[in-house]
Design a protein that fits this description.
Number of helices: 16
Oligomer: single chain
Distance between the termini: 78 Å
Helix content: 10-25%
Radius of gyration: 33 Å
Low-confidence stretches: none
Mean pLDDT: 93
Number of strands: 21
Largest sheet: 5 strands, mixed
Length: about 650
C-alpha cells in the first residue's frame, strides 16, 4: 500500500517514486523484505487518514512465465476503486463505486494491478471521518495467475492455476499528542498527516518570538531536517527526532528551534478557528496554537478542515503539476487577473482601476512609465513575494506552498492576505465574500484573489482600490488643505507642477495610497503628499525599515519604482526669509563677533518665501520631513542662526 502527497518521494528499486510505500507483504516462498504494521501479529493492517485516496497494489512474484489473470479486491466499507491518485471524481468513474463487501475485479490484460481506493460516505462523497476506527475494516485481495509446468513423462508444457489471498485491516484513529510517560502515537497515518501539513506550508518549529521571529510558515524547519550549523532538528518532547511517523508533542512551552507535529496541527487548527485578526500577542497566540482554543487532537472538526484544504492544495497541484517549483509569477497570470478591476458583478466586485484610470496614472507621471496594468501588477507581486510561490522550504520540497513567515497569520503564496479571510471561521469569510471563488493554493488564482482583495471594503487591509478608484470612492475627494504645499517635480525633469490647497490626489497619488493601504492603513485620511510628513521609520543596514506604523509609504514607493514610475518630489514652503542672515566664512561656517555672537548681514531675500524639497526619494533615504524642513531654515528651532541646507526657491 502507498500514499501520495505532492513533493514527497522515495527511491524504490533505484527509481525515484512519487508515492510512499507503507505496507508490503510477501507471498509464501517469496524472497525480499516486508514493511509496515502487523500489530496483531496475525492479520496485517494499514493506518490511513480520513478520506485520502491510497494505492493498493498486487505485485506478482518474480516467477518465470507467470501470467496474472484476475485480481479481486474487497473492502468492507463503501468506497470507490479509482484509476489513479486524485480527489473527488478525478480518475474515478462512477461505475467503480462499491458498497461494503462487494468485490471489485481486475482482469487481464493489465499493466499494473493497482487500485486507488478511497472511502465514501452515504452521500457518495469522500469520507473524511474516523470511519474505520482502531478496530479496523476488514479487506482482502485475491490474485489468480498461471505458471508453466512440464508434465512428467510427456515433456509437454501446460499451465497450472495458482492463487494468492491476503486479508488485511484498514484502520483510522483520532490522532493526538500523548503526555509522558505514554509512548507517542506512531504509524502511517501520522506520516501522512505530517507530509500533508508540510505541503500546506505549515511549520513545526518554535522560534524566539511570539509574533515576529516565531519560525512560522516559510521560516520553519521540517521535522527531521538539518538546521545548518545548529545541526539536525530536535523534537520538543524529546521523542525520536529521526522519523516523521511519530506524533511528537510538547508544543506549549517548547524551546526555541525545536519542532513538533503538535505544533503543525495546532497552528492549522488556530488559523481555522481563530476569531480575532489583530497583530497583538493575545491574538497571535491563537493562530500559533498556544492557547486552549486548540488542542492538537485530529478530531472530526479538524478532519473537515484538512479535507477542505487538501482539496484546494491537490487541485492546485493537478493544475500546475509540471512545475514542481514556482518562483517568479508569470506575466500572463497578472494580465488575466487585472480584468477583476473592471468589475465582477456576480462576485460583488465594483469597477475600480480600469484601463482608463491606469492611463490617467501614466499621464500623471508625464508618460515616463509605459507599462500596462498587467505589468504594474506583476511588478507589485514581485516586490511583495520575493518571487516565491511553492517548491521552497527547509528542506526545499516540491509543491510546498510558500506561507508567510513574518507572523502567524498564514498568508499564502504571492499575497499577504490573512488565511482566515478565505478559509477561516465563517464570520471572517463573510467579511471578504469577494475571495470565495479563488483557490489561494493556485498561483494564478492567488493573484486573482489579491486583486479581488484590493476591492473589498471591511476586509482587513483590503479595499484600497475601491476607496481610490470606484465611483464615489472616499479618497477621491480628500483635499490637501495645506497652503505650504506648493507643487512637485518628477525625477529626471525640471518642470514644476503647481498645486493649490484645494487640490485632490491625482491618479498616481491615489495609486500610491491604494497600494500602500494593502500593506497597512495608517494615514489614509490624508493626501499622498501629506502622508509623507509622517515620522519616517528610518533605515536598517542602509535599507528602508519595514514592519513599522508608516512603512506602507515605503511599500508603495518600492512597488511604483519597480514598475518604472518616476519618483515624485514635493516642494514645501518652509517659511519667510528673515531680515538678516549670518555672514559665512571661507570654511562655510558662520563668522562670529568678538563677543562670540554670530556676525549678521542684510538678507537680500528678506520677506520672500523659502521652500525645501521632500518627497519619495527623501522618504526612501530615511530622512524625516520635519528634520529636512528644520535644516533648510536660516535659524534653528530654538532661534539661533544657522547655515541653511536644502533651502530652495518655491518653484
Amino acid at each position: 500500500m502507498y500514499y501520495s502527497i505532492p513533493g514527497n518521494t522515495e527511491t524504490r528499486d533505484n527509481k525515484v517514486e512519487n508515492d510512499i510505500e507503507i505496507l508490503s507483504l510477501l507471498e509464501p516462498g517469496e524472497t525480499g523484505k516486508s514493511i509496515g504494521e502487523e500489530a496483531e501479529g496475525i492479520t496485517p493492517s494499514v493506518k490511513t487518514l480520513g478520506g485520502i485516496r491510497l494505492r493498493y497494489r498486487y505485485n506478482p512474484p518474480a516467477l518465470q512465465g507467470i501470467e496474472v489473470t484476475k485480481v479481486t479486491w474487497k473492502i468492507n466499507k463503501k468506497g470507490a476503486y479509482c484509476l489513479d491518485y486524485g480527489i473527488g471524481s478525478d480518475h474515478c468513474p462512477s461505475q467503480n463505486e462499491r458498497e461494503p463487501d462487494i468485490e471489485f475485479e481486475q482482469k487481464s490484460p493489465q499493466v499494473d494491478w493497482s487500485v486507488y481506493w478511497e472511502p465514501r460516505n452515504e452521500d457518495g462523497k469522500p469520507d473524511w471521518s474516523n470511519w474505520a476506527d482502531d478496530d479496523g475494516v476488514m479487506a482482502y485481495v485475491k490474485a489468480e495467475y498461471t505458471l508453466p509446468v512440464i508434465e512428467a513423462g510427456s515433456q509437454q508444457e501446460k499451465r497450472v492455476t495458482k492463487t494468492y489471498e491476503q486479508d488485511f485491516y484498514i484502520k483510522t484513529r483520532e490522532l493526538k499528542p500523548l503526555a509522558a510517560p505514554s509512548e507517542p502515537m506512531k504509524g502511517s497515518d501520522v506520516q501522512i498527516l505530517e507530509a500533508m501539513l508540510w505541503g500546506f506550508g505549515v511549520s513545526p518549529q518554535r522560534g524566539s518570538g511570539n509574533q515576529t521571529k516565531s519560525n512560522a510558515g516559510s521560516e520553519g524547519n521540517r521535522i527531521h531536517s538539518s538546521r545548518g550549523a545548529a545541526g539536525m532538528t530536535e523534537n520538543c518532547d524529546g521523542s525520536d527526532a529521526k522519523v516523521r511517523n511519530i506524533y511528537s508533542g510538547g508544543w506549549v512551552g517548547c524551546a526555541n528551534g525545536k519542532v513538533a507535529l503538535e505544533a503543525m496541527v495546532r497552528r492549522f487548527q488556530g488559523r481555522n478557528t481563530a476569531t480575532c485578526d489583530k497583530n497583538e500577542e493575545s491574538c497571535t497566540d491563537n493562530y500559533a496554537g498556544r492557547t486552549s482554543s486548540t488542542n492538537g487532537v485530529v478530531d472530526q472538526a479538524t478532519l473537515v478542515m484538512l479535507e477542505k484544504i487538501w482539496k484546494e492544495f491537490y487541485s492546485a497541484y493537478v493544475s500546475h503539476k509540471s512545475k514542481p517549483v514556482i518562483a517568479a509569477p508569470e506575466l500572463a497570470w497578472s494580465n488575466e487577473a487585472v480584468s477583476i478591476w473592471d468589475g465582477v458583478t456576480d462576485a460583488g466586485i465594483v469597477s475600480t482601476y480600469t484601463d482608463t484610470k491606469h492611463n490617467a496614472m501614466l499621464a500623471a507621471v508625464n508618460n515616463n512609465a509605459t507599462g500596462t496594468r498587467g505589468d504594474l501588477l506583476d511588478a507589485w507581486i514581485r516586490q511583495e513575494s520575493a518571487n516565491k510561490f511553492w517548491g521552497q522550504g527547509f528542506p526545499a520540497t516540491h509543491y510546498r506552498v510558500f506561507e508567510g513567515g513574518g507572523d502567524e497569520f498564514a498568508s499564502l503564496g504571492y499575497n499577504q492576505i490573512k488565511y482566515a479571510y478565505r478559509y477561516g471561521v465563517q464570520a471572517f469569510q463573510n467579511l471578504c465574500p469577494q475571495l470565495k471563488s479563488y483557490n489561494m493554493y493556485k498561483p494564478d488564482d492567488n493573484i486573482k484573489g489579491m486583486v479581488a482583495f484590493t476591492t473589498a471594503i471591511g476586509c482587513g487591509s483590503g479595499g484600497g482600490f475601491r476607496r481610490a478608484f470606484a465611483t464615489g470612492g472616499s479618497w477621491t475627494t480628500i483635499k490637501s488643505n495645506n497652503v505650504d504645499l506648493k507643487g512637485y517635480k518628477l525625477a529626471g525633469e525640471n518642470t514644476f507642477y503647481a498645486m493649490d490647497k484645494d487640490r485632490v490626489d491625482d491618479a498616481y497619488e491615489l495609486l500610491a495610497k491604494a497600494i500602500g493601504s494593502y500593506n497597512g492603513g495608517t494615514g489614509m485620511g490624508s493626501t499622498w503628499a501629506n502622508m509623507l510628513k509622517a515620522t519616517n521609520p528610518g533605515l536598517d543596514n542602509g535599507k528602508p525599515r519595514m514592519g513599522r506604523a508608516h512603512s506602507n509609504r515605503t511599500y508603495a514607493i518600492q512597488v511604483l519604482r519597480r514598475f518604472g514610475a518616476p519618483a515624485r518630489t514635493y516642494i514645501w514652503k518652509g517659511g519667510v526669509e528673515p531680515d538678516q542672515i549670518p555672514v559665512i566664512g571661507a570654511d562655510g561656517s558662520p563668522e562670529t563677533n568678538e563677543d562670540g555672537s554670530t556676525k549678521m548681514q542684510a538678507n537680500p531675500k528678506a520677506g520672500q518665501d523659502w521652500c525645501f524639497a521632500y518627497g519619495e526619494q527623501e522618504w526612501m533615504s530615511g530622512k524625516d520631513w520635519s528634520k529636512v524642513k528644520a535644516a533648510a531654515a536660516s535659524v534653528t528651532l530654538d532661534g539661533k542662526p544657522q547655515v541653511p541646507s536644502g533651502n530652495i526657491a518655491c518653484q
